Amino acid sequence: MDPPESADGADVGRGIAASLLADVSSLAEDMAGYIIERVPEVGGDAELRGLTLGSCSSNLEAVFSMLRHGIDVAAAEAPVTALEHARAMASRGHSVDVMLRFYRLGHEYFTEKLSDLLADRIDDPTVALRTFIDLERFGFRYIDRISSLVAAEYVAELDRRQNQARAERDEVVRALLAGERVDNARAERVLSHRLTGRQIGFVCWIDDRGVDLEGFARQVGRFLGVSHVLVVADGPLAVWGWASVTGDARAPLTGMVTELPGKRENVHLAVGSAHPGAAGFRTSHLEALRTRRVVELSGRAAPTITEFSDVALVDAISRDLDAARAFVAAQLGDLARDDAKERAERTTLLAVLDAQGSLTTAARTLGIHKNTVLQRMRRAEERMGRPATTKVAELHAALLVCDVLGASVLREP
C-alpha cells in the first residue's frame, strides 16, 4: 500500500504527518545539515547548499502533504528545486551516484527522525510499529520515485551540456580546418587543447565496429609524448586526433605494434608531420588524411601504422591516379605488371637503388644471395628495355610508388 491504510495506524500516521508538516522548515534545515555534513562534494558551494535546503524543504512538504491527505505515491512529481538541484550537480561534473546519495541520506534522516518521533508519541508498541512500517514504506516509495525522476533530469542536463560542448568544439575544429581566423585563447579553452605548440594530426580507422578508437587515440598520444590528445569522431569507424608536442624527439610509432597487443587489432593509423600553431593543426591533419588515402589505395587489409613522411612522395605522385599509372608504365615498361616474378624483380631493384647501387647491401636487406640480386636486376632491366643507371630518380620514384600502392598503379598480368 502507498499511504498508511492499516486499521490502527492510518489515522495515527496522518496525524503524525500533519504535525510534521507544521514544522517542515525546521526539519528541512536539520535534514539539509545532516546531508551536507556527509557529502564532501558540496564543500564551499553556496548555491548547491541552498538548492539542497530547498530540495529538502520541497520534498518534505510534498511527502507529508500526501501522507496527510492519503494521496497515492504514484501521483508524486519531483519538486522544481529538486530538479534544479539535479541540473546543478550535472553542471558541476558530479556523478549521478553522488547526486543520488543526497536522497539516500535524506531517507536515512527521515527514518531516524520517524523512529524517534513514534517512540515518543505512541505508547502502544504494536500501533507504533505498524505506523512506522506504513510511513517508512510510503517514504521509501516516494524516494524511489523522486530519485528516478531527478536522475532522468540529471542525465538530460548532462546530455544537453555535452551536446552543446560537442557542437561548440566541432565548430572550432571546422573553423581551424577551413583556415579561418580564430581566437586562439577561446579555441584552446573550448577544445582543451594547446594550439601554441607543434601540432601532430592523426587518423585512426577500422573496417568493422568493436574497437575503442578513442582509447586507441589516447594511446597514440602517449607514444607521441603527450598526456592529452584532442579526439573528434569521424563517423562510427574513424576518429581524428591531434597532439600538441614540444621538441622534435619522440618514440617511433612502429613501437605501438608490440606495445599494444590485441588493442590495435584491425586498426589503421595515419600520422601527419609536426607543424607549428593553428596553421599546423590544419596542415598536419590534411597530411594524415592524405596518408590514409595512400594506405587505402594500397589495399592493405592488415593493420597499418603509416607516417606522412614515409609516403609523401607517393602521395604527391598519386594525387592524379591515372597520371601515376602512366608514369609507372613509362618508367618500368613490362616490369609494371602485377605478377609474382615482376614483383620480386621490382623489390630487388628498389633495394639496390636504396642501397645506392650496392648489391651486397641489397642482398643483406632482402636476405637473399648476391647472385640472385644480380640475376633479378638483369631481368628487370630486360623488361624495362633500359639499364637501371639511367634516369635513376624517376626509376626510384616509380618503384617506390609500386611498392606502396601495388595493384592500384600496375597492369594486370
Structure overview:
The chain is 63% helix and 8% strand. By secondary structure, the protein is α+β, with helices and mostly antiparallel strands. Strands 1, 2, 3, 4, 5 and 6 form a 6-stranded mixed sheet that branches. It is rod-shaped. It has helices at 10-22, 24-38, 46-69, 80-91, 96-121, 125-177, 184-191, 213-223, 256-259, 277-298, 308-317, 321-332, 340-354, 359-366, 370-384, 392-405, and strands spanning 198-206, 230-233, 238-245, 267-271, 275-276, 305-307. It is built from 16 helices and 6 strands. The termini are far apart. Strand 2 and strand 3 form a beta hairpin. The relative contact order is 0.07. Helix 10 (277-298) packs across helix 11 (308-317) and helix 12 (321-332) crosses helix 16 (392-405).
- Give the overall average pLDDT: 89
Radius of gyration: 35 Å
Please identify the structural class as seen in this structure. Answer: alpha+beta
User: What is the succession of H and E elements?
Assistant: HHHHHHHEHEEHEEHEHHHHHH
C-alpha termini separation = 83 Å
The strand count comes to: 6
As residue ranges, the low-confidence spans are 1-7
Helical segment count: 16
Helix content range: 55-70%
Strand content: 5-15%
Name the overall outline.
Answer: rod-shaped
The biggest beta sheet is recorded as: 6 strands, mixed
Give the SSE layout:
Layout: H1 10-22, H2 24-38, H3 46-69, H4 80-91, H5 96-121, H6 125-177, H7 184-191, E1 198-206, H8 213-223, E2 230-233, E3 238-245, H9 256-259, E4 267-271, E5 275-276, H10 277-298, E6 305-307, H11 308-317, H12 321-332, H13 340-354, H14 359-366, H15 370-384, H16 392-405
Parallel strand pairs: 4-6
Antiparallel strand pairs: 1-3, 1-4, 1-5, 2-3
Helix pairs in contact: 1-3, 2-3, 2-5, 3-4, 4-6, 5-6, 10-11, 11-16, 12-16, 13-14, 13-15, 13-16, 14-15
